[in-house]
Specification:
17 helices, 8-stranded antiparallel β-sheet, single chain, 7-stranded antiparallel β-sheet, 23% strand, binds 5-amino-5-deoxy-1-O-phosphono-D-mannitol, alpha/beta
Length: 586
Amino acid sequence: MCGIFAYSGPRTDAATMILDGLKSLEYRGYDSWGVTVKQNNGKLFTEKHTGKIGDSTLPQMESSIGFGHTRWATHGGVTEANAHPHADWHGDIVVVHNGIVENFEQLKSNLIDQGHKFLSETDTEVIAHLAEELMKTEKDSFKVVQQVKAALHGMNAVIMFFPKEDAFFVFKNGSPIVLGKGENELFLASDPSAIRVYTADVYFLEDGEMLSLKGVDATLFDEDGKIKQIEYQKLAYEIEDAMLGNYPHFMLKEINEQPKVLQQIIDTQKDIIQDCADKITEAYGTYLVGCGTASYACLAGTYLFSKIAKRHVNFAIGSEFTYLIDFIKKESLVIALSQSGETIDIISAMKEVKAKGAQLSALTNVLGSTLYRLADHRMLLQAGPEKAVASTKAYTAKIAFLYLIAHALDKSYETGVANLSKAILEVRRIVKQAAELQEMAKKITASNNIFVLGRGVSYAAALESALKIKEVSYIHAEGFAAGELKHGVIALIEKGTPVIIFNPEDETYEDTLSAAHEVKARGAYVIGISSRENAVYDQFIKVENCKDATIIPNVVIAQLLGYYLAIERGLDPDKPRNLAKSVTVK
Ligand code: M6R
């Protein structure tokens, strides 16, 4: 949930590099931030602030080693004192941390009894003090860190900095940490996209392993403390993919990248998609599991599999899946969808799936992520780094995969490709004509509520669209199955309430049109998204019929609408309040 960046090497502008690294990781948490470097004059420098980094700078100084952290608060409010890094009383051990130390209260109370004084309310500060306490009897910092590692409970990624030794120690359980190796220099980050600007050679630390970085030497230790070879792998994307370029926001950039991402899936993923279809055929039962946007992609998948492949797949949201796990057998297949591959609700549930001996397939965007490594079968969305908190291109990429898997099951893969290609053309046209959606956003920006309706796969689209609108514009938006209107929802419709209706020309068309009439009769401002115009719509947005792949351009419209609503309301669509990109805590 937090972002970590560390550097050790010959450069003398480490402080600025670390701040730049944090800026690129800020999507992971933006309540507060902090940097600690050892200056080349030997003095330790720390600066911490609440709020976003924005265009903050650090004082001029020469430094070649240090680290920083962007925080998404869990233990302790958003204050400068609670911002990381945290140090022991003497500043000999400095710590940044992503995750939760579950037993911190017990550890803290023991340390207080031993005379330690704490400056923050965080669980993290306990780590530094615990190390300080252990150092009273054990002078070897490696051994001390091993003891600290063993003492902490919970899912954590921790970097401990011993400035006097120019050393970092790194360990993790659950939360991600990646090591980057440049020419005679080392980087650590929560996400490889922050490192890619310096190097493509990375190593994803495994749970239980420990890294020791001394100057520019990295040593890896397995769970038993034995030295292990570091097998670096190459990141597949280019530097520019992780940068904003000429776009004002990552959300807009990522919406615009969708035609390219979808085309790449068609061009490169056929065998992998067929392989997944075969796994589904062999399995006793298939479960699609995801959180947030990924869960709505899963729900869409159930409709696509049913309609196209005549196959029932189960669906659950990640945080609920562990309560349904009794159904899982050795012969079951679970397909976990996660952009980041780090969402804790998914990771914990998938560990239980593995423990039951079932097969796990991962559909993720991040090579080397925890989910990716946990899975028996791996599918990569190939969408490039997604930095805006609101997921856009990863969502449509997931839908494209599920759609093509359904067609592969049906042995009509080429039909799927043809429809998806048409959908890509539609997305291309929609993003070019985004000004129309900006105008619409102006009309409805003052609304207190927006509703989105659809049936069948468009119901799944309605849920995702409402999420997109609410999370970036803070307007209350809800998606409903159009057929549910008369069972209660219609009570919410007032004069002028915007109601977006997904009405593709499929088996849902006539019934959804009735829903449009019903809300119109109660005064709603009806926005119809369809291939066929109708007088019931106050505003009509045409989307060509791309068969079941129409869900893709339909949701892109809602993505753009959400984006422009945020802009109209003066909000930062990339970093919505209270949210973070990667939800690595429960
Ligand atoms: O990385 P994941 O796909 O596992 O993330 C799941 C959700 O946290 C994520 O989709 C979230 O709902 C987004 N903010 C939606 O835009």
